[in-house]
What we know:
Layout: H1 7-10, H2 16-25, H3 40-67, H4 73-100, H5 112-115, H6 126-151, H7 156-182
The structure holds fe (ii) ion (2 copies).
One fe (ii) ion (FE2) binds at residues 57, 83, 87, 137, 140, 169, 172.
Amino acid sequence: MTNKTSPTDTGFLSDVQTLRARARKHIEEGAVTGNYGADRDTVLKLLNEALATELVCVLRYRRHHFMAKGIHAEPIAAEFKIHADEEQAHADQIAARIVQLGGEPDFSPDGLAARSHSEYVEGDSLKDMIRENLVAERVAIESYLEMIQYLGDRDPTTRRMLEGILAVEEEHADELADMLSSE
Ligand SMILES: [Fe+2]
Ligand SMILES: [Fe+2]
């Protein structure tokens, strides 16, 4: 590293020595440095709720994938499976971030539904299933928006991850709304 663009010159970053000393001091904290601006316990709690939400969505979509019946069922059942897999990928991303922040991902089935923001509703008809999934997606969208607002610039990495997930939940909701209107 050269000192050509020394952060001290810009006046808004800590000088290199201070940054290096701080990074060394709490080395056991891994990716979490002294400049981490959010309340870590709060972020970990929020992320574990998001993890539970994603896991409940995986279970609901998978149930619907296997139970979808009727004349229009086949493409919709296939879409439910795609959504289930995407929710699983979200759960994995969130769990990895929890560990990166020094926490532990809560995969316990005990209390899973209570930790989740969205609900596990089986639904009787294909239309019910689509509607329940749309409700769950809208709940997820709301809660991710709130988390993103809370994080702001305090934890940009977690915020960016959640923004990516949010964009997919919006696509899911959009697809489900289209299915409902074409039913
Ligand atoms: Fe998701
Ligand atoms: Fe989703």
